[in-house]
Amino acid sequence: MATLYFHVPFCKRICTYCDFYKVGAVALIPKVVEQMHAELERRAPYLKERSLTSIYFGGGTPSLLSPEQVEGLITHARQLFDCTQVSEITLEANPDDITAEYAAKLGSTSVNRVSLGVQSFDDRVLRFMNRRHTADEAEAAVSRLRKAGCDNISVDIIFGVAGFGDKWLAQSVARAIELGVEHISAYHLTVEEHTKLGVMARRGEYIPVSEERSESDYLLVESMLTEAGYEHYEVSNYALKGCRAKHNSAYWAGVEYLGIGPGAHSFSGDDRRWCISTAKEYAEGDMRFEGETLTRKDHLNEYIMTSLRRVEGIDLAYIARDYGEAQRHRVEQAAKVCIECKTLVQHQDTLAIPTSSFMLSDAVIESLFA
Length: 370
Description:
With about 375 residues, this protein is α/β, with parallel strands linked by helices. The protein has helices at about 30-45, 65-80, 100-105, 125-130, 135-145, 165-180, 195-200, 210-225, 245-250, 280-285, 295-310, 315-325, 325-340, 360-370, and strands at about 1-10, 50-60, 90-95, 115-120, 155-160, 185-190, 230-235, 235-240, 255-260, 265, 270-275, 290-295, 315, 345, 350. The mean pLDDT is about 95.
């Protein structure tokens, strides 16, 4: 089993916080899409004839592609892979791209899940982030998608924004809940060095929130969403019953995937590769890649990292079986301090981070690394 990812690195406007590879040269889209077809054809053997379970269009802003371009890539994938078990095809979208016409056309494609980059239902926060939509436009996008037949919608929410905690954050989360979307991803705002926000922070124009504020914002989001019936199943992800994100869940389970497009990453068990071509180079057919081969130690550490991000946690019996009893013993010994601090709980052969402590997951995970 494997998954397929298309990276669409185009944005009409660059958000203050975004550190993903993206460009504003939207005129390159037709040529890049053409080369994505070529790369898909050329690199299909990377997955060694695996069956696909999900397809994901991420970015950037995939909704800058026409529904016809999106469906064309899906159709090409069906020609190259066994897609009979594909149950989820997701398109990331900016709310203001979802016009009534776009939603209707998208409804006629194979896309059955849309992830809206809402980020906030507070227009002041959206202006600060340099988003190109308003809160009302985000709500309108959900409504249009519903009318077009989409019954699986996810929205992104960002918390930990200085000056917008407490009631402002609560009001934003409440509007997301009222929309009745099936999935909500909630991320803490991160100040990345090579972003406009990073520049603002270095100049003293933006002061990140304190650890105390981070924790209170996180707990507010978690309590509101879980009380509304959303399952907190991964550090940053909440879903109504039966609506977990299948594609992202596959990443956390260590499933192989093929990434297509400039900046896209791929993984085939022991090998990880990523495209380092710029969008301009890629559009001209110049595809360059870098990669690495994972060691047994890398595999174990990745299993620990991805598993502890999920409510299911890590399986000590699996570690003993695949990496040896010595590694199981090492992990159990390292976990004792966290168990005493209640940032880890053990139930028979399972170690998991309580959802109330997910904000501390990075430190807990690092303490268990080989």
